[in-house]
């Protein structure tokens, strides 16, 4: 009986510490989190200090209030002594067919512009022909293999590839810092994100300090990637689409990266490449 109580106390302490870390990461005070989760500040203080054992419902409520990713919610549930609540189903599973079909329609509809579907590790799990044409025009098969893990091209590794891809990005001084900023934003929002490792890997050798602050012009709405392809400079800007209110870990982590032409010349070039 004493051992069971000790285990219960240990779970409460581990969960309380984990919750406190996420609250600090989200820059929330105990009071603001208590208000958002509809719980008293005193009870929240007891939970974080390990003096109170939260119910499964309370764990979920606190995670929702802090907008914690589903993968991390499962980890917090385990810390509190509960089973993971959110499944992680591979995209190839039968029950994910409707998701696969939706993704296929989205990327196919985006032709002739490039579109990639990437997972949390930045691996390309699906793409359209427009994306395949850009990759094959910029990289040889050997380089693509070097940038692939588990048979999937890593989109971020491709962008930072030094020998073939980076020399094609004519405005790397502007694009590089923004890619690093995106990795940093994801790493800051979730320290377990693979973006943390990629940020450490790329930051030192990115060669993209950018212009001095006094030289900055007013920011444009977008920063197109100026990419040299087959003798033409394509100017592309990106949008990112995610699934709304997913209840699957892997589905929440999928992102659809779609490129659009930033000028008429790029529009004509992409259509010519497709034909």
Report what the structure shows:
The chain has 275 residues and is an alpha+beta fold. It folds into 2 domains: 2-79, Orthogonal Bundle (434 Repressor (Amino-terminal Domain)); 94-210 and 219-274, Beta-Lactamase, CATH 3.30.450. It has helices at 2-25, 30-37, 41-49, 56-65, 70-79, 97-109, 129-138, 141-146, 155-160, 172-189, 195-203, 249-253, 264-274, and strands at 115-118, 124-127, 148-149, 152-153, 225-229, 232-241, 255-261. The strands form 2 sheets. A 5-stranded antiparallel sheet has the order 2-1-7-6-5, sandwiched between helices. A two-stranded antiparallel ribbon has the order 3-4. The longest helix is centred in the N-terminal third of the chain and has 24 residues, at 2-25.
Brief summary:
This protein has 275 residues and is of the alpha+beta class. It has helices spanning 2-25, 30-37, 41-49, 56-65, 70-79, 97-109, 129-138, 141-146, 155-160, 172-189, 195-203, 249-253, 264-274; strands at residues 115-118, 124-127, 148-149, 152-153, 225-229, 232-241, 255-261. The strands form two sheets. Strands 2-1-7-6-5 form a five-stranded antiparallel beta sheet, with helices on both faces. It has a two-stranded antiparallel ribbon with strand order 3-4.
CATH topology of the largest domain: Beta-Lactamase
CATH architecture of the largest domain: 2-Layer Sandwich
| Classification by helices and strands | alpha+beta
Q: Helicity level, as a percent range?
A: 40-55%
Percentage beta strand: 5-15%
Question: Measured on Cα atoms, how large is the radius of gyration?
Answer: 22 Å
> Which CATH first-tier class of the largest domain would you pick?
Alpha Beta
Overall strand count: 7
For the termini, the CA-CA separation is 74 Å
Spatial strand order of the main sheet: 2-1-7-6-5
Q: How confident overall, as mean pLDDT?
A: 91
Q: What profile does the largest beta sheet have? A: 5 strands, antiparallel
């Amino acid at each position: 009986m004493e051992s069971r109580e000790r285990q219960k106390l240990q779970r409460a302490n581990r969960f309380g510490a984990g919750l406190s870390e996420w609250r600090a990461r989200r820059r929330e005070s105990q009071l603001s989190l208590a208000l958002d989760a509809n719980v008293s500040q005193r009870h929240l203080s007891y939970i974080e200090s390990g003096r109170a054992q939260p119910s499964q419902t309370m764990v979920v409520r606190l995670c929702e209030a802090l907008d914690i990713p589903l993968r991390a919610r499962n980890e917090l549930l385990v810390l509190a002594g509960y089973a993971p609540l959110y499944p992680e189903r591979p995209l190839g599973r039968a029950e994910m067919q409707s998701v696969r079909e939706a993704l296929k329609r989205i990327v196919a509809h985006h032709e002739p512009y490039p579109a990639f579907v990437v997972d949390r590790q930045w691996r390309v799990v699906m793409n359209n022909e427009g994306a395949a044409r850009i990759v094959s025009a910029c990289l040889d098969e050997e380089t693509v293999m070097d940038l692939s893990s588990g048979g999937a091209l890593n989109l971020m590794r491709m962008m930072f590839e030094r020998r073939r891809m980076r020399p094609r990005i004519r405005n790397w001084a502007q694009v590089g810092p923004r890619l690093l900023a995106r990795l940093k934003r994801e790493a800051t929002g979730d320290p377990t994100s693979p973006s943390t490792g990629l940020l450490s890997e790329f930051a030192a050798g990115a060669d993209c300090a950018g212009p001095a602050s006094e030289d900055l012009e007013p920011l444009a709405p977008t920063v197109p990637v100026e990419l040299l392809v087959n003798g033409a400079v394509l100017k592309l800007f990106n949008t990112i689409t995610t699934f709304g209110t997913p209840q699957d870990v892997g589905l929440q982590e999928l992102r659809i990266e779609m490129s659009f032409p930033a000028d008429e010349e790029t529009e004509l070039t992409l259509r010519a490449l497709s034909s």
